[in-house]
Amino acid sequence: MKKLQVGIIGAGGVARTIHVPGLRMCPEAGIAAVCDENIGAARALEAGEAVTSYPELLARRDVDAVVVATPNYLHREIALAALEAGKHVLCEKPLALNLAEAREMADAAERSGLVHMTAFTYRYAPAIQYLRHLVDTGELGRIRTVRAAYLMALSKHLLGWRSTRRQAGSGVLADIGSHLIHLVQFLCGDIAALSASQRRFRDDPASDVEDWIAFLAEFESGARGTFEISRVCAGRGAGITEDIFIELYGTQGSALFSLQDPWGVRVLSGEAAEDPSSVLERRAVPEQFLKLPGSPRDPNQGDPRWGYRYDQAFQFVESVRLGKPRAPSFTDGLRCQAVLEAALQSCETRGWVKV
Ligand SMILES: NC(=O)c1ccc[n+]([C@@H]2O[C@H](COP(=O)([O-])OP(=O)(O)OC[C@H]3O[C@@H](n4cnc5c(N)ncnc54)[C@H](O)[C@@H]3O)[C@@H](O)[C@H]2O)c1
């Protein structure tokens, strides 16, 4: 069977550490070309032909699908051009700079009949897949409250395009808050309304975006939640050491996730949950959740805090082979973008905003 040929647009950090190794693990995919405006960056990936113009890459008949891994301000323009050229698209998060752009992209993707996907990479963490199973099977009952945080230390790579609204959309909210919001909506359904507060603590005259934001949320289900997102938390790490916490408290039990322990969850459920003196205990994630069904990845290879990210490439390739978009699609990217927009609006109006 002919291999699916992928083109990568944007040869920076995420392409190097997630997309290229993920695609290389898929026996049914190849990388035909890499585009970066910096030819040295494109060549350094040592994957297919290196080019500097994305229209040139999109014009290639040997490219079936593309990964858009450029800074956020280019996602809309490149993803729309890719769909127009008939290419399936895996686009990095946040999908766009704002809600209007994200809606335009999701509409175009839905109309195209092509496969479209937003790179919400952390949902492939085994413990997240298992938490979703606990929610779906009712082990926790109805979720009443959620406590979610994504905290990291200030890292040099956060300077540059990530520090301006024009290029990033917003600061820590767009950059890592988008992941957290997607994960919580994946587990608990959509957020209906929120009230937010933000601040820039870092002394950087070149930046016009927040590096801390928190909000109180009401879910469509009636659940309530708190979110805190920060990139100024010394000691919370950067890259593989940064941490996401999600705590779910339901009518029948509770479950806690930490990105630093992706093969375990702390759970209390069943009869024990009826005893107020019981506390959560760590439960190993069952074997069947350690990778997506069918993924060629060996979960025992490498650091468990990193490897699951490669399942994203597997899902993209498999979706194209099956010919159908699956979550997280551009529509999931749009749902997340609606929350980002509401949070920014709430910070400005200093009041509750409907999503
Ligand atoms: N899913 C994840 O876990 C994850 C992790 C990191 C970054 N991201 C996202 O991936 C995207 C890229 O982030 P990054 O950390 O790799 O950034 P980066 O700055 O390391 O890389 C971006 C690359 O895009 C290139 N580029 C800029 N303009 C271009 C153009 N017109 N044509 C072609 N290439 C161009 C730059 O030269 C650079 O090499 C962002 O949207 C970011 O939010 C996602």
Structural description of this entry:
The protein is α/β, with parallel strands linked by helices. It folds into 2 domains: 4-121 and 310-328, 3-Layer(aba) Sandwich (Rossmann fold); 123-303 and 338-349, 2-Layer Sandwich (Dihydrodipicolinate Reductase, domain 2). Helices cover 32% and strands 24% of the residues. It contains 10 helices and 15 strands. The strands form 2 sheets. The protein has a 9-stranded mixed beta sheet with strand order 14-13-12-11-7-10-9-8-15. A 6-stranded parallel beta sheet has the order 3-2-1-4-5-6, with helices on both faces. Helix 4 packs parallel to helix 5 (99-112). The longest helix is centred in the last third of the chain and has 20 residues, at 330-349. The radius of gyration is 20 Å and the shape is globular. It starts with a strand and ends with a strand. The model has no long low-confidence stretch (mean pLDDT 97). The structure holds nicotinamide-adenine-dinucleotide.
What's this entry about, in short?
This protein is an alpha/beta fold and 355 residues long. It is built from 10 helices and 15 strands.
Task: Give short descriptive properties of this protein.
single chain; 355 residues; alpha/beta; Rossmann fold; Dihydrodipicolinate Reductase, domain 2; 2 domains; nine-stranded mixed sheet; six-stranded parallel sheet; 10 helices; 32% helix; globular; binds nicotinamide-adenine-dinucleotide
Mean pLDDT: 97
Question: What structural category characterises the helix and strand content?
Answer: alpha/beta
Total beta strand runs: 15
Radius of gyration: 20 Å
- pLDDT < 50 runs, ≥5 residues: none
- Relative strand content: 15-25%
Termini gap: 45 Å
User: How does CATH name the architecture of the largest domain?
Assistant: 2-Layer Sandwich
Query: What order do the SSEs take from the amino end to the carboxyl end, as H and E?
Result: EHEHEHEHEHEHEHHEEEEEEEHHE
CATH superfamily of the largest domain: Dihydrodipicolinate Reductase, domain 2
Approximate shape: globular
- Enumerate the distinct ligands: nicotinamide-adenine-dinucleotide
Strand order of the largest sheet: 14-13-12-11-7-10-9-8-15
CATH class placement of the largest domain: Alpha Beta
Helix content: 25-40%
